[in-house]
């Protein structure tokens, strides 16, 4: 009998039982807070990604310019940093235009020391310069020349035209390099 008493169902008083799960209002509030947070975070994440790409490209340009200068001093020859048309090109383009590839070289038909590619991220980044013929040559004393003139305030600008930000690498007097962020419209 005792067993039968234990197996009989006892009515459950739902009012005294703890509630489990979420109410519809709690769920809607959570979704609303998550949506607002996401709406604020996505543009910041996009800007962070663009800034990272700009910094990477400008650091590659600075590294190539430093390499050209140090190789000119070490080898006691002229070494150039310039824009080239293709990844296999051996000679500088010698005209202004969009940067897609670059080289560090000892001159026309000379030894290519390093090659580089400008990653445009499907047109999201562009590179242009104020260098004469998109070419800078470091002489054995380590000074930079563009054309036949000593470089003074020449720029290589890396831009993200879609969001108007960029980085500017400046070759100053005495071949001093500096990099700065720019927040102006740097579209083509």
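Q: What amino acid sequence fits the structure above?
A:
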């Amino acid at each position: 009998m005792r067993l039968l008493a234990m197996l009989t169902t006892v009515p459950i008083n739902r009012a005294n039982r703890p509630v489990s799960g979420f109410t519809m209002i709690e769920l809607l509030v959570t979704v609303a807070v998550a949506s607002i947070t996401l709406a604020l975070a996505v543009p910041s994440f996009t800007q962070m990604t663009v800034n990272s790409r700009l910094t990477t490209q400008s650091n590659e340009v600075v590294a190539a310019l430093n390499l050209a200068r140090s190789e000119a001093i070490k080898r006691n020859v002229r070494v150039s940093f310039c824009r080239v048309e293709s990844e296999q090109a051996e000679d500088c383009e010698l005209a202004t235009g969009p940067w897609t590839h670059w080289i560090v070289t000892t001159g026309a038909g000379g030894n290519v020391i390093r090659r580089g590619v400008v990653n445009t991220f499907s047109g999201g980044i562009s590179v242009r310069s104020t260098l004469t013929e998109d070419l800078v040559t470091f002489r054995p004393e380590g000074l930079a020349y563009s054309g036949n003139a000593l470089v003074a305030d020449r720029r290589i600008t890396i831009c993200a035209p879609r969001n108007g930000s960029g980085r500017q690498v400046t070759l100053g007097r005495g071949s001093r390099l500096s990099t700065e962020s720019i927040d102006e419209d740097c579209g083509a």
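Q: And what stands out in the fold?
A: Helices lie at 2-7, 24-75.
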